[in-house]
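Note to self: keep these together.
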Amino acid sequence: MKIRKIYIFLIIIFIVFFCVMFYLFGLDEIKSSKQNLTILLGHNTVWQYNEKQWLNLSKNLGRYDLNWKKYHVYSNQEYVGDYLLWHDDQWYAFDDNKEAVSLEGDLLAYMGNYKLSFYPFSEEEIEDYSSVNEVLKRYNISLSSELTSAYHVPFDFDHDGSIEDFYIVSNAFTQDEVDTTFSFVYMVKDEQISMIYQYLDGGNSFNICKPYFTSFLDVNDDSIYEFILSCGGFSISEPIHMLYQYRDNAFKIAISSE
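Structure:
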């Protein structure tokens, strides 16, 4: 009888322990497994974030159930409303009565149960070209043509109360004769340069793409910022889109449209 009571007591302890551990850890896992996020960019780029993994759905849009879903829609960094979206050669927007809605500018839309936050940013003229000259020197480039893109974006990317400067410098699509065409994206913090994106080619400036920032955002409300860098080609209708994260002391692409 005494042994039976001991067994019952141990079973009760085990059940209580299991319930406590399930409450502490199991519920979060179940919630996270049900969380998903779908991001639309431009005409044909679709990314999905699920169980902490990124998937690129851009190549086979017809295989996925994305049409006639309600998305939070942004255009040119501005929230324009929640609309039903339908894809043909591009994304088309409709209201709840399926009446067409005209959207202008660069489309960015999302749906899902992750909290997604977007942050405004501005492109500002470069006044101090010391970092630009340093980057060109690193790649043995002498500036012999006009810059077709030259600006910086001030943004507190790491939440430390100090502004970091994100630079874009390019001579893509220049009409001048050049030995090297280039596009550079980098960040300056405490006078240190962190490269983000670089592309170099020969003298044909129409072979490379011109980068630009599409969005600064927080994907899953973890107070860790990401940004979307896009790169448009001269004869390519759809830019390349890249979502960057800062991991292991470097900027890395989490997912790309390619």
